[in-house]
Amino acid sequence: MFIKYFVEHYQDDLWLLLDIAIAGVLSGIVGMEREKFRKPAGMRTNMIVGSISCFFVAICTTLIQYIGSGVDLGEIRSDPIRIIQAIVIGVSFIGAGTILKSGNKKTVLFLTTAATLLYSSGIGIAVALKQYVLAVGLCLLVVTINWFLNVIEERIN
After folding, report:
1. DSSP annotation of 74
2. Where are the domains of the chain?
């Protein structure tokens, strides 16, 4: 009885949680590759970035409806691009924290890890927008890029 009531009344929330979980899993796959090569910002960080990006984008519609319930919707100026912009800025700030300059001051380290975090946020945004095939494709693409180019770099060096 309770479960039926819960599912009926919170169905939208449960679907949102499923999308957040999907974004987390796909971003976690990206993070596993980083973890394998012992880079900063591994599986957990990528999962958090991807899933919270999904949440921020997905909750936008609910937020507009909530705010608009007592206000004339013509007075509310919503711009979903701002949410994506805020995600990009926030994730870039986190990514900047992973970038290090080596002791010889000529080499910069972990730029790929920072870019991968940004990629994970893109995966989360794609899931929030119900672009599941695109999200899976992005996941596979970035893992391929990171893994394949790492193999090539090792052979060159």
Report:
1. G
2. 2-71+79-156
